[in-house]
Amino acid sequence: MPKATPYFSQDYDEARAKFKDATKAAGGTMERFLNEAERGLKGEELSTDVAWHGPKDAEAVLVTISGTHGAEGFCGSGVQIGWLESGLIEEMPADTALLQIHAINPYGFSWIRRVTEDNVDLNRNFLDHAAGNWPENPGYNELAEVICPKEWDDATIASANAVLLAYADEHGATALQSAISGGQYNHADGIFYGGRHDTWSKVTLNRILDRYLGKAKRVALIDYHTGLGPRGYGERICVHKPGSPGIQRAEAFYDRDITSPYLGSSSSVPLHGVNLLGIEATLPHAELTAVALEYGTRPTLEVKHALRADNWLHLHGEIDSKKGQAIKEDIRAAFYQDADDWKTMIWERGVETQRMALKGLWS
């Protein structure tokens, strides 16, 4: 298998350029969805780029998504680029198409943030906001001020962490994880905020799916993520409901090597407003088999610490300060390990998963 490291990038600009070049060289067609309201860290334009390879009327389509959580985009982008540059695109069955959605949250990718430009966690945003019936998260409400304190110094952090640990001691570690990361809709300045409106990224993703998958009958979707689980291991998280045709197909596609938040077998807890469930609702005409491919980076507490620090920085700090730069380096490392062994693990598991998905589409 080709060496993985050249496929990965150091920033959003480089990733986008590599993706464009790889798509052109592989003979794909590309469409750009520009976020006209925002600019990137270096003042660059921000866009989601879509590549299509294969018949326009294909009934079977493999979809890959990178950058749902912005800063996690380095991982999925590397696999998307590598699939094209390595020549693995030639493995596509004749009657199957590949839809690559690159940097669906370009703001977060460029600014090295997990959230969109409006501080929304895109993977908690897929709800019917017009209904005004947002889920409650009493645990987050109780802990909001210590999850995201207004000061970020050693004393404040130690005091806040003591409260969080006490909550875990009383209610259990899983309850704390659900409170922090399950999704919340009352604290717009907090973390894991699902928003109360459709984000640009959600609207754009729905436009892409409507435009490209209208004729699809079978869709295998892989959404690339990082920051949860053992370092470098790619956990296939399936959010299709237990007993549903979706989870049964996923078990068949991936030789039962999947986990479920609902069954307690995943490193993730059940979440509100998940994108893959939203996508399932928008494709009633197709059999959707979706997984989030989640790779570990650093221990969970370190990742959560980096998220909290980054939230504080963008609300109260100065990015260009010494402290600000240290926080940005930390959040980057929480979601992207710039190490050859980690990149190799990402690449090999990604290739394995995409090959299994292609086989599953025709099983």
Automatic annotation (TrEMBL):
InterPro entries noted in UniProt: DUF2817
SUPFAM superfamilies cross-referenced by the UniProt entry: Zn-dependent exopeptidases
A Pfam family recorded for this sequence: DUF2817
Name of the featured protein: DUF2817 domain-containing protein
Source organism of this protein record: Limibacillus halophilus
